Amino acid sequence: MSPLAMIAIAAAGLATGASHPPPDRPVRLVVDRSDTDVTIRVVGRWEKATRVSYMLETTNRSGGNRTRQRGNAELAGNRDTVLLTARLGQSAARDWQATLDVEWEGGTYQIERAAP
Q1: Closest CA to 33 of 98, 111, 112, 94
Q2: Which helix (H) or strand (E) holds 39?
Q3: What are 65-108's pLDDT values in tens digits?
Q4: First CA to last CA distance, the chain
Q5: Domain range spanning residue 110?
Q6: Is 83 helix (H, G, I), strand (E, B) or coil?
Q7: What is the rounded distance in angstroms from the CA atom of residue 78 to the CA atom of residue 82?
Q8: Segment 24-66, tens digit of pLDDT
């Protein structure tokens, strides 16, 4: 099984204690690393209810594997909402890149993160 085939996607509307996104953007990427894996979360928060569309693309930087997950969400006002969670196994955790594309009433933007 390829490393990125181990990605577990869980779309959920759970409140979290994560930090707030920049004031002009309602969705952010949160990356947590451990010795054995990487967890990438797409988290939304806005001061009022708003709709967002997003796509998270996770790739192996050496060009091996790629996965894309898309979604639409209605964000509740002033509450963190986990929109998507991706977990990368140990071998993928060393060589990954994540790109998040977001579209909402305020426009579009992209966030990128990668393994150090």
Answers
A1: 94
A2: strand 38-44
A3: 888 999 999 998 889 999 999 988 776 667 889 999 999 999 99
A4: 24
A5: 3-114
A6: strand
A7: 13
A8: 899 999 999 888 888 999 999 999 999 999 999 998 877 678 8
Q: Which residues of 85-105 are buried (b: 16+ CB within 10 A; e: fewer)?
A: bbbbbeebbebbebbbbbebe
The tally of domains found in the chain comes to 1
Write down the pTM of the prediction. Answer: 0.76
Structure tokens at 76: 């509740």
| CATH number of the domain that residue 28 is part of | 2.60.40.2420
The CA-atom distances, in angstroms, between 107 and each of 22, 42, 50, 62, 101 are: 14, 18, 12, 32, 11
Edge-to-edge strand ranges of the sheet holding 50-60: 66-75, 50-60, 96-104, 107-114
Give residue for tokens 């009433």: 105
